[in-house]
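Class, discuss our next protein.
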Amino acid sequence: MDKKLKIAIGTDAFPPTTDGISNVAQSYADILNKHHCEAVVVTPKNPNQQDRKYPYEIFRYKSWWVPSKEGYSVGWPFKESLSYDIIEKDFDLLHSHAPLATSYYFRLINRKKRIPTILTYHTKYEYDIEKRVPTKRGKDFARRFILNNINSADEVWVTSSGSADSLRKIGYTGDYIVMPNGCDMPKADIPKEITDKIKAEHNIPADIPVFIYTGRMIWYKNIRLILEACKILKESGKDFRLIMLGFGADEAAIRLKYKFLGLSDKIVWVGKLLDRERLQNYYAAADLLLFPSTFDTNGLVVREAASCATPALLIEGSCAAEGIENGKTGFFCKESTENIAEVLFEIMNNKPLLKAVGKEAQDKIYISWAEAVEKAFERYRIVINNFYSDNNSNDEYKY
């Protein structure tokens, strides 16, 4: 294919909404436009959007605003003219990063004009369906809606092999490609004076172990296990600090929980932080990332921590642990309070081991977004060529 491609990056979350998929969509758009092709972000409208600061086009479609800490808008792509707005932009490929409203929007477009479509499955949606949808009828509808959006794609990507299990639980039986996410933080050796300054800001003694949790403040990230393990450490006379950095629907309950457990003197609550350079400095100030989530399909934070040679403690067999070697590029534990505490007892004061494993993680598991998007772009060409060589553009569209 000779001509420069034009790609639609579809996402239900984009700044000012901040979450993992928002970060992914922004990274794809940035790198595609800088190095590979023209990319346009397609996303729901947001009353707080500041799209003029981005050096590429952001196409916003109708939405319903949902006031919340996360700041999500619910896409409403049903106005017929919206489909023609996309068709007239002459995209070569539509790439959706969630099987939700924007994927349904791409289905509506394909009913009028077939355009090759990729869907990346990032999140274990069965968790959200079980937690947030109250009735069986509602749960069945949500699964069918998501499954039809997945099936409608010409190619399905997952970010790790383990996340394919979630696809199967939703009901998808087709093929998929593993296309890992990257990290937008550069590899860096953060100077000691910077990490010392972070510690001084929070009155963290220089010689004690420092843990960090970063991500959404929601219980199903296994934050309860982290807090209860820290309680065991404290009751055993261990001194440490746990930096908690992020925001989310359960943050008030999480703060109440650690106070109830008597951990107020051990927790450094930073909350929401959007400055990526400063976030990396926090990672560097910590000895170990605690990330016992079995919910995440890739765990961007593991590579973010590795960018500055901070290793992670992960649940053995989880998607976040995929590609990690226990004791070499990270550490494994079982999904239990007692085992997390047991592993921390073994490694928390062994600074040489933590530093060595962190350096191996930086060297071996880190992948930049430039590398990840280059691989994705190469696959875009294959998907487009397959679409037209197989005459899919002439097939009746079923979705």
Q: What stands out?
A: The chain has a mean pLDDT of 93. Residues 185 and 360 are 17 Å apart (CA to CA). Residues 369-389 form the longest helix (21 residues). The chain is about 40% helix and 15% strand.
